[in-house]
Design goal:
The structure is a homodimer of 324-residue chains. Chain A is mostly helical and 324 residues long. The first copy, chain A, has 16 helices and two strands.
Chain lengths: 324, 324
């Protein structure tokens, strides 16, 4: 992976966040500590904490408070992964066994709940009611999106609007909340908060689209996840949706057939990839991500130049430059 | 059930809480609304909201804020029940089918998460960072207690200390938090907050002990739950713990044998009841609950007489007067 130069400005603050993520609440069962350390120690890009800290810098927020907010969003993200992995039956996350492989479903449910509570506790320590409110609303949006998806079923490629709603709930909502943490804690005006919120939201949309493109285009070795996983699991993401809408009637039928099957094979994937290539769907999807990033950057225009603004602009470029 | 006269003082405020519990967050999936209405409409005693509202009255808190806190604790309680029922495989709660009977485990996990988030959202609307902090800490205590219990296993009768830790986490912690909501929102001194917190905690201990006694002594028809359920499920509660410690060596062995079995029968229950009766264990446990309630009431001594104080004293007496 590229070096994440945009985090230079907040390197010390990110260190403080790491400490917070590794603090154990008094009286907490040993197993929870092991689980949280395992998950949090697994790394990940810390994109969300960096976003909180940079937006805090930009808006002159108290950095000690911002560190709590940054730790809270990362912990919230971790909690959602615990329950998601249980629901999906995922075996590996961040290159390590998931909790549900090691523990019973019951302990996994409760550990996820505990980590939600711990995230809320960290958020409360940031000392802002408005932040707490946004924090809980964001978790509602995330859960609501997943429930929506479950009731919709997975057997038809969704349309673009449905896809966008889904990735907003899944990814962009938390990045939006991360980016608006700074102005909230800095007591910025509503228009500033909205600008950074939109920046985060558009960044999040781009981030998820790139992830979904990489699922088709990355090589197994560099990516750390199984290529083609979304398709094999019956998830229709943007490349497939674009390909579907451009496809011939015959290919449309074929794609529909893939999604009606209880399982999709490697051979199905190879056939789908031909349709995707014919439609130039990976490039079109990537272009969509670039548009989102451009919109994100536009929302920083009103801020005077500063190292924090530069870092946020670089962060936006990084999101669409991710390769394996 | 007796009429809950101690709620007279806060009848209107409880009405406001009911309204809040039935509000639907914009954009929320229809199924969540149905689930929340089903659970919240199921009634229950609204003991926790009453506690929040009465402590708010006692401490001169803004009642509109207190209504949010009251709705938040009831919603938090509801959320814990959703995941508990899933984990226990419970089929009936408050006389109605549980969510996990109607839905897949995945949707049930996510709906529980959503309701946690909604509870946090309601708590945030009470507009107090201190309350949010206590709210999230309480959820941590509840989850931690359940995880502890799972790792401890259920095959040996625990000692009294372990039992008390368990019921503190399970029940008393949330009642403590409910009772301290009033002083927190009213900006009371730390000593006042602590007094009401201890009142709530002792009340909660008594409440759970009475519940555990009723599990042995109630008749099926009036109780609404299956009598002897705790024992049949391998949960050792206070009556059994007391009986175990007073029992002859032979009876001790018998009780241990019961807990080593994968399942306990009605015949086992009949034999256990003889040991419990011989030890006078239901009365001793009931006496313990009365002691908790007396301690609870002592912590209200410093408050001048008022209708709110009277109601809180009555509420304490009600907890140990519960019969079927």
């Amino acid at each position: 992976m590229k070096e994440l130069f945009f985090t230079d400005l907040v390197r010390d603050d990110l260190g403080r966040v790491e400490d917070l993520l590794r603090e154990h609440y008094p009286g907490q069962h040993e197993a929870i500590g092991v689980a949280v350390d395992h998950l949090v120690g697994g790394g990940g890009k810390r994109l969300r904490p960096a976003l909180v800290l940079l937006s805090a810098y930009l808006c002159g927020a108290e950095m000690a408070q911002a560190a709590f907010a940054a730790a809270a969003v990362e912990m919230l993200h971790t909690a959602t992964l615990i329950h998601d992995d249980l629901i999906d039956g995922a075996l590996v996350r961040r290159g390590m066994e998931t909790l549900n492989v090691q523990w019973s479903p019951s302990v996994t449910v409760l550990t996820g709940d505990y980590v939600f509570a711990y995230a809320a506790y960290l958020a409360a320590r940031a000392n802002s009611v408005q932040l707490m409110r946004r924090f809980s609303e964001t978790l509602m949006v995330i859960c609501n999106g997943e429930i929506q998806q479950m009731f919709n079923g997975r057997h038809d490629p969704p349309d673009r609007q449905e896809y966008e709603q889904r990735i907003y709930a899944k990814t962009a909502s938390l990045l939006a909340m991360s980016a608006e943490s700074g102005p909230i804690l800095g007591g910025a005006e509503e228009s500033t908060t909205m600008a950074l919120r939109t920046y985060g939201e558009q960044l999040g949309m781009a981030f998820q689209i790139v992830d979904d493109v990489l699922d088709y285009s990355a090589t197994d070795a560099g990516w750390g996840k199984q290529v083609g996983k979304d398709f094999l699991e019956g998830k229709a993401t943007l490349p497939l949706i674009i390909a579907f809408h451009c496809a011939s009637a015959k290919d449309k039928l074929l794609i529909k057939k893939f999604f009606k099957k209880p399982e999709r094979t490697g051979e199905d994937y190879t056939r789908l990839m031909k349709i995707i290539k014919r439609a130039n769907a990976l490039e079109t999807a990537g272009q969509r991500a670039v548009e989102n990033v451009e919109t994100a950057k536009k929302h920083l225009k009103a801020f005077p130049d500063s190292p924090a603004k530069k870092a946020l602009l670089d962060l936006a470029d990084y999101v669409v430059s991710r390769t394996v």
